[in-house]
Design goal:
By secondary structure, this protein is α+β, with helices and mostly antiparallel strands. It has ten helices and seven strands. Strand 4 and strand 5 form a beta hairpin.
Amino acid sequence: MINVFVLHNGRLSQINVENRADLENTLPIWVDLTDPNEEEREWVKSIYGVTLPGEDEVKDIEASARYYEADNNDLHLRTDFLIDDDDEPARTVTVAFILARDILFSVHTIDLPVFRLVRMRARSRPGSIEDYKDVLLDLYATDAEYSADALEGVYQSLEDVSHAVLQKEFSDLDAAAALNAIAQEEDLNGRIRRNMMDTRRAVSFLMRGRLLNADQFEEARQILRDIESLDSHTSFLFDKINFLMDATVGFININQNKIIKIFSVASVAFLPPTLIASIYGMNFRGWFPELDWNFGYPFALLLMLVSAITPFWYFRRRGWLK
């Protein structure tokens, strides 16, 4: 699918493209392609002389393939954008950018929240975009804002886990749920940090290329400052995640120790009855007055019961059963 955007009265306007003629009759500053087919790729190549990268080329993680200037002076960038939806796990999608003919070309497999947000803002804020470089910088700035919102969600989720961990009754089932939530937030926090690192590299590449004017260069510097503040926040969240992980594991150990303590107390409490039963179970003739006593058997049972209750009473008084 091809989404073409032109600058009209200081606003970013979308033009419907249904065939090659529609594409030829526009003067766009941004051509956004979502999972383009071969025909759409051929349109872009024949009209603008730009060869779009394939899916494998887009996902290439080598630094030399992610940011470079082609022989025809076209700039190529590969940047990851975050997707944080409630319906599915968070992930990043790599977008290929090509800056050529005063047009920004973007290629990605699915529509991204950041791209939708930029389109909506550009239509409602006249004068915010003046050329294709402003579009790219706006995408990076919006990506930083989107990541910041995702970090706020991580913090809130960790706060909920913290309240659950620090509650008075914390069972093993609660601990399992807490560990699962902590692992998910740790994964999201790591993805956000990696995404911001990739955006920093892309913005730094643009600044080194001397492509930006003075206002755009200052905007790029502001994006880098925002990313630096997000890095500090992700470090804080990693510390909070480690604390909650240690606290959860500690409570699991405490619950296990309580079980072991009960078994230890029970084994000690039943030692005296076992000793009494062993004495009266000896199979030899000797001086055993109780053997000929009619109440010998009830007396032995009562003695074992008292010897079992007495340790429990003592342990409870000392507070060892709590």
